[in-house]
Write a structure and sequence with these properties.
This protein is α/β, with parallel strands linked by helices. It has twelve helices and 19 strands.
Length: 463
């Protein structure tokens, strides 16, 4: 019951005393935990609705505190996993939740290379009609997982009758949030633009990752990969051949996963993103990779509906998921017809409120036109400004994965009347404290000694 809570906060285990109150139901459905958290799964009180709309039963009134234990009418880890793994998506009646292999999808992807962008845009808009009316996950950023975890922390503060709970801060050196920029290379034209794109990124001093399709789409010469590595950028695998069929069936997926694993070793790649963001998280065990970047936070504008409802990295077995937390460039430009960074700014502000991961997908293929390129350059300038203000750590996906794995193994240990962090990488970690202020959970970093050494890429204050 407490695994998700401890993985997120890395606080002393004594503050994670949660127990079930009553037997869980056999059926699954939607209910509410407080005002902000829509949950999906089993519960031991009230009723579970078939959809995520209004009128959900609020289980918060059924929570009780006995000594220092919080007795809950649901299993928090089960509910959070149901969101992170998108298990609610297939439950919704009439859900447009496909992951490749459907006849219309197969036909579309067989014709896609021959279709002009204008035709693709028209077909996609027809299919996505009504997306803005989807009640859950919440557009433009869903932070349900964070809401649940903060509500549990508030209950723990109450149960233990303490003013604050210590935990390992989310990002290195106390920086407030993190951002990554990633590029999915889909065509030969996009591949040929990558060198110029690296120039654009370097002008803003922002390194990024390039996801390469290893088969059929375009030749992948070693000189192309060497140039990316030499310039300090990162290489990841982007599907196998980007035909929309990776998750069409279990047997086919396993066959393709073996080839993807071989390409990852050949390219020296540790990360992966599927084509079109098709995904089945329960199959990820076949990948021999360090991290994945295929699950969107909110998937209203994607062919496969759903969303992981979190802005924080999380583990799927041994693979770390770095969720896609902002709208893709293609959707912004060609579905929403927006060539400003206004929506991205709004999403970044929401993500930073919960100190999450801001992740972008910018396709080289879709910023060949000057108007799109200028939008991207404006985004880079804004990211660089946030970094200069000490609000963001801008990193490569592999750096984020390495940090999050280190943090997942850290513990807080008591040394006299102080807490200290134990574990590899602790010199970059910071202790923070969670408190209740005006009924809301607020975080404060522990004061650091004046002699502390700071990397200029990081903030010293995350508040």
């Amino acid at each position: 019951m407490r695994e998700a809570f401890l993985d997120y906060f890395r606080c002393p285990e004594i503050f994670a005393q949660f127990a079930l109150r009553g037997d869980l139901s056999k059926d699954c459905g939607y209910f509410r935990f407080g005002q902000d958290a829509t949950c999906f799964g089993r519960s031991s009180s009230g009723f579970r609705a078939k959809g995520p709309g209004d009128g959900l039963y609020n289980v918060l009134a059924d929570v009780s505190i006995e000594n220092t234990a919080c007795r809950l009418p649901f299993d928090p880890t089960e509910i959070i996993d149901n969101l992170r793994y998108e298990r609610f998506a297939n439950f919704n009646a009439g859900s447009k939740n496909i992951s490749g292999g459907a006849p219309l999808t197969t036909a579309y992807y067989s014709m896609r290379p021959l279709l002009p962008v204008s035709m693709r845009r028209h077909l996609q808009r027809m299919r996505l009609k009504g997306w803005e009316k989807i009640p859950f996950p919440h557009w433009p950023v869903d932070r349900t997982v964070e809401y649940i975890l903060k509500k549990l922390l508030a209950l723990s503060l109450q149960a233990h009758n303490v003013a604050e709970i210590p935990f390992v801060w989310f990002w290195p050196r106390g920086v407030g949030s993190c951002a990554i920029v990633t590029h999915d290379v889909e065509t030969a034209a996009g591949r040929d633009f990558c060198s110029e794109l690296m120039d654009i990124n370097d002008a803003a001093a922002i390194k990024s990752s390039f996801q390469i399709v290893p088969e059929k789409r375009y030749p992948v010469p070693e000189s192309f990969l060497d140039d990316i590595r030499r310039r300090g950028f990162e290489i990841n695998i982007h599907d196998l051949n980007h035909d929309g069929k990776l998750f069409s069936g279990r047997e086919e997926f396993l066959r393709r996963a073996q080839r993807i694993n071989r390409y990852a070793k050949e390219y020296g790649a540790r990360g992966f993103r599927s084509g079109v963001l098709y995904r089945k998280a329960d199959w990820y065990g076949a990948f021999e990779l360090v991290y994945d970047m295929s699950i969107p936070n909110v998937a209203h504008l994607d062919p496969q509906r759903g969303g992981c409802c979190t802005v924080t990295p999380y583990f799927i077995g041994n693979i770390l998921e770095l969720p896609v937390t902002t709208t893709q460039d293609y959707s912004l430009f060609h579905i929403l017809s927006d060539y400003s960074i206004g929506l991205w700014e709004r999403q970044m502000n929401l993500i930073m409120e919960d100190h999450g991961l801001i992740s972008f997908i910018i396709h080289p293929d879709y910023i060949l036109q000057e108007c799109a390129r200028k939008t991207y350059e404006e985004l880079l300038s804004y990211l660089a400004q946030l970094r200069a203000e000490g609000k963001l750590w801008i990193a490569l996906p592999g750096e984020v994965a390495d940090w999050w794995r280190q943090r997942s193994r850290m513990k807080l240990v008591s040394q006299g009347n102080r807490w200290q962090i134990a574990g590899a990488g602790r010199e970059k970690a910071r202790i923070a404290y969670a408190r209740l202020e005006n009924g809301q959970v607020r975080y404060h970093l522990e004061h650091e000694p004046e002699s502390a050494t700071h990397d200029p890429r990081f903030a010293s204050d995350s508040r």
